[in-house]
Amino acid sequence: MTSPLTEHILYSENQLHIESCSIESIATKTNTPFYCYSKAQILTNIQRCKTAFNPHGIDIHYAMKANSNISILKLIAEQGLGVDLVSSGELLRAQAAGIPEKSMIFSGVGKTSTELTLAIAAGVGQFNVESVEELELLATLATPHTGAICAALRVNPDVAVDTHKNITTGRKGNKFGIPIEQALSLYQRYADHPWIKLSGLAMHIGSQIQSAAPYCQAIDKLMALVEKLEEEDFSIDSLDLGGGFGVDYGEGASLDLASVAQEIAHSTAGFKGRIIIEPGRSLLASAGVLVSRITYIKEAQPNPFLILDAAMNDLMRPALYQASHPIVPTNTDNDSCMRHYDVVGPICESTDTFARNYPLSESLKAGGLVAFLCTGAYGSVMSSTYNSRSILPELLVSGTETQIIRKEITQVQLIKYEQ
Ligand SMILES: Cc1ncc(COP(=O)(O)O)c(C=O)c1O
């Protein structure tokens, strides 16, 4: 595994730095484990995405499920991006960050009546509808009082994607979207609804995708559907192509945004309406690290266990998707001889294993620090309190400044919610 260090998360004089702050210096002031993000790296990633997609007139809506910390959403707002949200909780966060409601897209397969009502009242710009049943519910909630509600049908294009089976979302059998064959009849059924303006199509075929090919296959199906709908006099004014752009977790591969943008533009050529993408991971993943302290090095066969103070509840991806994150020492002063470790957390589950047979310096000691790279997306947001552990603090570095953007949520605080 290679280390996908970035422009702003890198070694300087053998010390891992986020921008101008060494992780070791941050860890003298913050208890481990903690998440730490680089503001400059987030801005670099956003700029890279804009440079790739904006020339083709493609709008970027950040999929805030990847990391919904309000300080991060404020950066998203400052950069003029919209958001893709999937719950009323995310709606509240986006509002707290000052993202205009018109720039919000509400996705998700199980939006409740309460959530829809809240989002309609807030004036959310677009509802990506995922089932006949949801459209029926939305139609009952849309009244003269609410005014016209802008909706797009999320269709399931049934394309294969070369990614982990738990993160494909556009195949038959996945719970997401409406079978593409049903779209025309739904458009016909709602054509005369006075308050539902059905005029878009949406898709999201999966995550951590490393090739433009499945996007092109799915878009071809979408474009054929657009043609069919237009022949029936429906005007389609937006196509939301979802996110899923793959990043480098140490395997050395990532999806080149400029070339996928070009392929998307080519596949959608001739479409006159608005084209939207919803990247999450590709904007945030590389901008964050999870910092953890070594509690013990337990000698064992075939490998010693590196037992950390971070656990699967803090970083779920390895347990959930067999995902691997590069694990690096924060100080490489004595790094010449390597040893293989099984890297684990303290939770009472064998799945609380981050990596097996992982090469790291033999000079590591209990009390030392390691960092999990590329944990800015789907890291902190997925954490739980399993084993009665706290929710970790999050920090944002900008140059020489370090700011706590979420305090630790302690067990003492959580216990107060229980009788
Ligand atoms: C509807 C939708 N859009 C966008 C995304 C973002 O995907 P990614 O973070 O891989 O770009 C997701 C991820 O699950 C999603 O469900």
Description:
The protein contains 12 helices and 21 strands. It has helices spanning 23-27, 39-53, 70-78, 88-96, 113-122, 132-141, 183-190, 213-231, 257-267, 281-284, 317-321, 411-415; strands at residues 9-12, 15-18, 21-22, 34-38, 58-63, 82-85, 104-106, 126-129, 149-156, 178-179, 196-202, 238-240, 274-277, 288-298, 305-308, 327-329, 338-344, 353-361, 369-372, 394-398, 401-406. Helix 2 runs parallel beside helix 9 and helix 8 packs parallel to helix 9. 26% of the residues lie in helices and 25% in strands. The protein has 419 residues and is of the alpha/beta class. The chain folds into 2 domains: 9-38 and 285-415, Lyase, Ornithine Decarboxylase, Chain A, domain 1 (Beta Barrel); 107-279, TIM Barrel, CATH 3.20.20.10. It is elongated. Strands 4, 14, 15, 16, 17, 18, 19, 20 and 21 form a 9-stranded mixed beta sheet that branches. Strands 5-6-7-8-9-11-12-13 form an 8-stranded parallel β-barrel, surrounded by 4 helices. The chain has a 3-stranded antiparallel beta sheet with strand order 1-2-3. The protein binds pyridoxal-5'-phosphate (PLP). Residues 63, 65-66, 84, 107, 204, 207, 242-245, 278-282 line the site of pyridoxal-5'-phosphate. Pyridoxal-5'-phosphate binds next to helix 10.
